Amino acid sequence: MSQLDFYTNPQSRGRMIRWMLEETGADYETHILTYNDTMKSEDYLAINPMGKVPAIVHDGRVVTECAAICAYLADVFPEAALAPAVDDRASYYRWLFFAAGPLEAATVNRAFGFVVPADRERAVGYGTFEHVMDTLDMRLSESPYITGDHFTAADVYVGSHVIWGIKFNMVETRASFQDYAEKLVVRPAFIRANQLDEEAAA
Ligand SMILES: N[C@@H](CCC(=O)N[C@@H](CS)C(=O)NCC(=O)O)C(=O)O
Q1: Greatest CA separation found in the chain?
Q2: Which residues of 67-97 are buried (b: 16+ CB within 10 A; e: fewer)?
Q3: How far apart are CA 124 and CA 32, in angstroms?
Q4: pLDDT in tens, 113-145
Q5: Helix (H) or strand (E) holding 8
Q6: C-beta of 70 in contact with ligand 1 (< 6 A)
């Protein structure tokens, strides 16, 4: 019997991983950590020295970083069919890493008012916020899911950025983003995950 521990706070990126865990159907134990308190405890820093959530520990193996956790869970629970076949992962890796790198950096920098000087855009991984929005828009306008015709773990991660990005005004409200978000928020696992986190938050 394997052991899966989930460290989170209901008001955090841990929501992405709760959703992913619910998609896998796996049994897991939730540990709610509090900001500036248990998140910085010696015990938790031994799991994630960043003192940030989420993290998972699966049979003694630690995984941090939401995109990595999504990819890992898809691999260790293959029965949930959340990762494409290995030789069909070009889009899967591409968009997972696009979201963890350029999309995350562009949206957070913009939200906090960091402005890349125009003459430095070439040196910044995401270039410009608009360019990132246009690229994601192009992809979601041509494909029902981020990797193609099927829902995968990459949709949990990219979709989380889009769903919560629209909600918190961190991504633009474009038609392709809204259509994509509408498709995802009706998934039973998404609904269950949100209920669990709302209960935990209360
Ligand atoms: N790159 C990390 C980001 C994790 C992160 O920044 N988590 C925030 C909550 S959304 C956190 O734990 N902040 C607590 C702190 O820094 O003290 C990931 O993708 O998992």
Answers
A1: 55
A2: bebbbbbbebbeebebbbeeeebebbeebbe
A3: 35
A4: 999 999 999 999 999 999 999 999 999 999 999
A5: strand 4-8
A6: no
User: What is the average pLDDT value for the chain, to the nearest integer?
Assistant: 97
Domains and CATH numbers, the chain: 4-81+189-201 (3.40.30.10), 86-188 (1.20.1050.10)
State in Å: Cα 25 to ligand 1 middle: 24
- The span from the CA of 71 to the CA of 92, in Å, is 9
Q: What angle do CA 54, 171, 179 make, to 5 degrees?
A: 95
- Give me 54's structure tokens: 């989420």
Tracing tokens 């997972």 back to the chain, one arrives at 96
Give the residue whose CA is nearest to atom 2 of ligand 1: 65
Structure tokens at 152: 């995968």
pLDDT at residue 1 in the model: 78
Sequence-distant contacts of 102-111: CB under 8 A, at least 24 apart: 102/126, 102/127, 102/132, 103/132, 103/136, 103/158, 103/161, 104/161, 106/132, 106/133, 107/132, 107/161, 107/165, 107/170, 107/171, 108/170, 110/170, 111/168, 111/169, 111/170
Q: Which of 175, 150, 172 is nearest to 161 (CA)?
A: 172
